[in-house]
Design brief:
With 155 residues, the chain is of the alpha+beta class. The chain is 26% helix and 45% strand. Strands 1, 2, 3, 4 and 5 form a five-stranded antiparallel sheet that branches. A four-stranded antiparallel sheet has the order 6-7-8-9, with no helix packed on it. Strand 2 (52-56) and strand 3 form a beta hairpin. The longest helix is centred in the N-terminal third of the chain and has 40 residues, at 2-41.
Length: 155
């Protein structure tokens, strides 16, 4: 029995990273499909390097879900950009998009996804003050969102 464990346990431990990698790839594919469809609908493009993802329980089931802040820019050939927050819940069938909402953008506020803590999504914000140059928001703040009945709600 001990000899069997000597061979099986290392094989299992070596396989765990590849399982995690495969899960991460499936998650990324679901997120990219969702964002690509929205960008197409808006006739814009995602600014992919600005995408941020946080993991944590959002629906009180004890399983880590995902929150994603992403930016779509160039709608209809303009120089506009809009930031969105989307949530993806983990189910038996994999990651499922649940809801998304506008959270910032040009001439509004800039947001940066920080974390998910105690079922709350935390964002760092920078909003425009009247005396700020138009391209540089200076007022620091936070925004918090929760998932209520499968809808994002700002606190």
């Amino acid at each position: 029995m001990n000899k069997l464990l000597m061979f099986v346990l290392p094989a299992l431990l070596l396989g765990l990273p590849s399982i995690a990698f495969a899960q991460r790839n499936r998650d990324t594919a679901v997120i990219e499909k969702f964002i690509t469809q929205q960008a197409t609908d808006e006739r814009g493009e995602e600014y992919e390097s600005a995408r941020r993802v946080a993991s944590g329980d959002l629906n009180h089931d004890g399983v880590a879900d995902l929150a994603v802040v992403y930016t779509i820019e160039g709608q209809d050939g303009t120089n506009n950009y809009i930031q969105y927050l989307a949530v993806f819940i983990r189910s038996r069938g994999g990651l499922v998009p649940i809801d998304h909402t506008f959270v910032g953008g040009k001439s509004n506020r800039d947001v940066d996804l920080q974390s998910i803590r105690k079922n709350v999504i935390w964002l760092r914000t920078r909003s425009h003050r009247e005396d700020d140059p138009s391209s540089t928001p200076g007022k620091k703040g936070t925004a918090r969102f929760v998932l209520v009945k499968r809808k994002l709600k700002e606190l």
